[in-house]
Amino acid sequence: MRVLTLNPGSSSLKSSLVVDGTPVGWAATDLDDAERALDRWSTVDAVGIRFVHGGSRTGPVRLAPDVVDALENLNPFAPLHQPQAVRLAREVFRSRPGLPVTASFDTSFHSRLPEEASRYPLPREWTRQGRLRRYGFHGLSCRHAARRVPELLDTEEPRFLCCHLGAGVSVTAIRGDRSLDTSMGFTPLEGPAMATRSGSLDPGLVLHVMRTAPMSVEEMEDALYHRSGLAGMSGTDGDLRSVLTREAAGDTDSATAVAVYLHRIRREIGAMAASLDRLDAVVFTGGVTEHQPELLARLADGLGVFGILVDPARCLGDGDRVISPNDAPVTVFAMGTGEDVELARDAETVLSLERV
After folding, report:
1. Is the pLDDT of residue 69 over 60?
2. Contact assessment for residue 173 and residue 275, using Cβ atoms and an 8 Å cutoff
3. Pick from 202, 158, 154: which is nearest to 180 by CA?
4. Is the pLDDT score of 355 beyond 80?
5. Percent of the chain at pLDDT above 70?
6. In a domain, 53, yes or no
7. pLDDT tens per residue across span 192-248
8. Are residues 34 and 183 in the same domain?
9. What would the pLDDT profile of 70-92 be if each residue is shown by its tens digit?
10. Is residue 168 domain-resident?
11. 99 and 209: one domain?
């Protein structure tokens, strides 16, 4: 089966052709270049689109206009990504009527979070309907890691952490194929500091700023999603490469930004490790793992208390690989996200069930 996968980010679109489960071509383009991807790989059996938020949906679905309309209602909860996926779906409907289109949701992987990990300590009349809860994100990346780790580690039901390091950052505790806890919550704002997102904050600070600035809800939303994180701390666009370059040149704001960024990730790693009865492995994945692998050694510095050690020389390889020393108590992997493979698998599953 030939599946065109479309993976929209906040500012770019990753497209890939997956044939019988194997990626055979990919491209990263501007968000407005979906038509180019459809033209490049015109003879496909289906299109699979990554949606960050699926609400309460526990698995992939076949898209239809009414389903897309429902998913559009979730735009406020993932404003950097969800609108792009909605637009892509409608563009495929318009450009290729009749071509099956499926959606895979990052939130689905976390749909079985234990109650203690999914519930916020809020008034029960707020949470009784089950909508104001921790959803979790980066689920396709986590699910791919959950497939690969048992193959690479040869351990039944491994306990491990998946650290997705990109423009968005999350850490997830996984046992076997199940998410036990994750750093992102009701929205992709929760967790470590990110490229332009603040990560977790004291809500009292937000209330204070809104009262004293004063700021509207819309202004605060823009600040937390677009003007915080690495961007806000360093005065850059938030691209980690730019921040690291300025740090190397002696810029103190950038040095502080990187220190905070790494500290917040380490803190989440410690918190997520507490959800496991043992720690067999740690997976680093995402764009930072791919493009700034040398940063992994800096990140691991200070994680030795958890048995997490990294060999700097091994960080610089390619493909799915072990980057911990041979005698390390915890096996550490650098791994591709595999989101295109997961999107294609879901498309095949959904369409095969329709044929039964």
Report:
1. yes
2. yes
3. 158
4. no
5. 99
6. yes
7. 999 999 999 999 999 999 999 999 999 999 999 999 999 999 999 999 999 999 999
8. no
9. 999 999 999 999 999 999 999 99
10. yes
11. no
The number of beta carbons lying within 10 Å of the beta carbon of residue 290 is: 16
Query: Residue 234's domain spans which residues?
Result: 154-334
pLDDT tops 60 at residue 160: yes
Q: Is the pLDDT score of 356 beyond 60?
A: no
Residue 188 lies in a domain: yes
pLDDT, residue 30, reads 72
Residue 32 has pLDDT above 70, yes or no: no
Q: Catalytic residue numbers?
A: 106
- Do residues 307 and 328 both lie within one domain? yes
Average pLDDT score over residue span 277-284: 98
Residues 101 and 247 in one domain: no
Q: Are residues 330 and 197 in the same domain?
A: yes
Q: Does residue 95 lie in a domain region?
A: yes
Domain CATH code at residue 80: 3.30.420.40
Residues 26 and 59 in one domain: yes
SS3 string of the chain? CEEEEEEECCCCEEEEEEECCEEEEEEEECHHHHHHHHHHCCCCCEEEEEECCCCCCCCCEECCHHHHHHHHCCHHHCCCCHHHHHHHHHHHHHHCCCCCEEEEEHHHHHCCCCHHHHECCCCHHHHCCCCCECCCCCHHHHHHHHHHHHHHHCCCCCEEEEEEECCCEEEEEEECCEEEEECCCCCCCCCCCCCCCCCCCCHHHHHHHHHHCCCCHHHHHHHHHHCCHHHHHHCCCCCHHHHHHHHHCCCHHHHHHHHHHHHHHHHHHHHHHCCCCCCCEEEEECHHHHHCCCHHHHHHCCCHHHCCCCCHHHHCCCCCEECCCCCCCCEEEECCCCHHHHHHHHHHHHHHHHHC
Confidence (pLDDT) at 156: 87
Quick one: 297 and 329 in the same domain? Answer: yes
Number of domain units in the chain: 2
Mean pLDDT of 2-21: 90
Residues 74 and 211 in one domain: no
